[in-house]
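re: ur question from yesterday

yeah so i grabbed the chain u mentioned. its 294 aa long if i counted rite. heres the sequnce exactly as i have it in my notes:
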Amino acid sequence: AYGLYLINSDSNTTTLTGDITTTGGNAPGLYLNTSDSNTTTLTGDISTTGESSNGIRFFNSNSNNLIHRGNITTTDTYSTAINLDGSDSNTLDLTGNISVSLSNAFYIYDSELNTITMDGNITVSGDDNDAYYVDGNTSVTTRNNITHTGNISTSGDDGYGVHLNSTSANTVVITGDISTTGNGASGYHISDSDSNILTLTGAITTTGTLSDGDYGTNAHGIHSIASSSNTFTVNGNISTEGNYSHGLAFYNSDSNTTNLTGNITTTGDAAYGLYLLISDSNTTNLTGNITTTG
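ran it thru and got these structure tokens back, copy pasting raw so excuse formatting
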């Protein structure tokens, strides 16, 4: 059972003041399915309990305008707070905190030209779950713009603050701290993604385990794999804890530009401040100290 459901419906205006609560599997709070050019204003909290129960889900829906003032809480698997799937040119204006267990907070898949503005904190718990996950074919998932004001915290192995996979030309601007706890839980994790602009005003703190040191599964501040022509800007300190957990780690990544204003501190065996492997023509500008222990 859905809280608010639009299917094959266009150009509607909906205003709701009050909370949306759903219980049970496949029970999203707000669901737009193949619906375009709608304006929806929600003032109140969204809470879902059950598998595949997103807080807000857009599927094959374009050019919608959503304003939400309130918190979003989900507590089961495949229950992202915000899910855009095959949906383009939407505008989401969100104010409130997001708390999710066992799912990603944001999952944007095969969607382009969306604008997301969020003011609030994000808390994510559970393995393999991210605060922001932008995913898809590089020719489809492009040119999304995300502006986030607030802190981001993930708890669980391989739980990233920002995760870009097979996507290009996105802009992600965050004002606030990113904190991750768990093996392989990097602040930024970029794979097979090019020409993205990532800007953080705040600190990155990662806490991994004293693992066996597999390169791909450690808690780096910024981790780039097979990604080129990206621009990373961090105005704040980067601190990592855990073996092989580097401040900045590039693997098979070329022609990236990184601007860091702040200190890099790493603790753990073979935890380097800056680490480039099979990576060419990158430019790194660091204003600050590098301190390594281990």
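noticed a couple things. The two ends are 53 Å apart (CA to CA). also The mean pLDDT is 95.
anyway ttyl
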